[in-house]
Design a protein that fits this description.
This protein is mostly helical and about 140 residues long. It has one domain (about 1-144): Winged helix-like DNA-binding domain superfamily/Winged helix DNA-binding domain (Arc Repressor Mutant, subunit A, Orthogonal Bundle), CATH 1.10.10. It is about 70% helix and about 5% strand. It has 6 helices and 2 strands. Strands 1-2 form a two-stranded antiparallel ribbon. The longest helix has 26 residues, at about 1-25. The chain is globular.
Amino acid sequence: MQREMIVINKQLKMIHNAFEERRNRHLLKYNLTSSQMEVIFYLRFHEEEKIHQREIEKWFRLKNPTVTGILNRLEEKDFIVRKTSESDKRFRVIELTEKSRCMMQEIYEEMWQMDDRIYSCMTEEERKLLSDLLERILNSITEL
């Protein structure tokens, strides 16, 4: 049992590293990291909502300084803007820029093609099972 957990932990780490390396290599031409791109995707899929930094922290389960750093770099690169919220001046709403929207479709298609190749070794049921199992692990870790 202990050996299996060590192997699983190693496999999860190696999968994470491989995803990060592959995505970062691909995103070099856009001057983005995979973490920055994930935030852009999140903002794109929640564009009809007023997104504050706390929502990003909760969604990605990241600490405030980490998200602040990602957002600062995205703003420096003109991928996002932060505006004071009309309803609550304490919060800043995060919005995508036109630059983000223009490159979004191209990156989106390329990323999904890459993911399709990666997950093509599994059936839809297996992908669902894997997702459920990983969610259980993630919830277990965050409860500790």
